[in-house]
Design a protein that fits this description.
With about 180 residues, this protein is of the alpha/beta class. The chain has helices spanning about 30-35, 45-50, 60-65, 75-80, 100, 115-125, 135-140, 145-150, 165-175, and strands at about 1-5, 10-15, 20, 25-30, 40, 70-75, 90, 130, 160. The protein has 9 helices and 9 strands. The chain has a 5-stranded parallel beta sheet, sandwiched between helices. Helix 2 (about 45-50) crosses helix 3 (about 60-65), helix 3 packs across helix 9 (about 165-175) and helix 4 packs antiparallel against helix 6.
Length: about 180
């Protein structure tokens, strides 16, 4: 599995069941990194729909915030502040990779800093397995293969969708 060292941000290969020492001196333990609890990142629109109790999407967003193991990036939280406070885990993305800044959507629109921070956090943290968002352009960004090509996550390991799709997905997996 390929991971990013939390200390120096170098990309390293971490063989299954092994521990690796990074050049910066930090020891990376496979069992700790590979078996963290899986989390989903949520975009600002999910938080806003839930907070404003949107008539069309609000109920699904509220359920996702309660049911899913979710997290946000600091940039997303800054986008919905000052009135959104919660006990959601926050990932801090210090720098967005230059390759990621060059991404554009199909509509020739550059994604926002908050959107890029979600993708960067997914690249840096192996426990993140998807992004919940209502941003139409996001699937074009995240699933275009960027996450698959830059990390150890395969197409089956990383999911992007809406709150409603997430709830349907988890309902199907519970039936099995």
């Amino acid at each position: 599995m390929r991971i990013t060292c939390p200390g120096c941000k170098r990309r390293l290969r971490l063989p299954k069941g092994r521990n690796v020492h990074c050049v910066c001196g930090r020891e990376l333990v496979y069992m700790r990194l590979a078996h963290k609890e899986k989390r989903y990142l949520v975009d600002a629109n999910v938080l806003l729909y839930a907070r404003n109790r949107d008539p069309e999407r609000g109920r699904d967003c509220e359920r996702v915030l309660v049911v899913a193991k979710i997290a946000v990036t600091q940039q997303v939280l800054d986008e919905v502040r000052p009135s959104y406070e919660s006990s959601i885990e926050v990932y801090r993305v210090k720098e967005i990779a230059p390759k990621l800044r060059e991404l554009w959507t199909d509509d020739s629109k550059q994604p926002s800093l908050a959107d890029l921070s979600l993708v960067q956090a997914a690249l840096e943290n192996p426990e993140i397995c998807g992004i919940i968002t209502y941003d139409r352009d996001f699937k074009a960004i995240a699933t275009r293969g960027f996450i698959r090509s830059q990390s150890s996550k395969s197409a089956d390991d990383f999911w992007v969708g809406t709150a409603k799709e997430y709830l349907e997905k988890t309902k199907k997996s519970e039936r099995r």
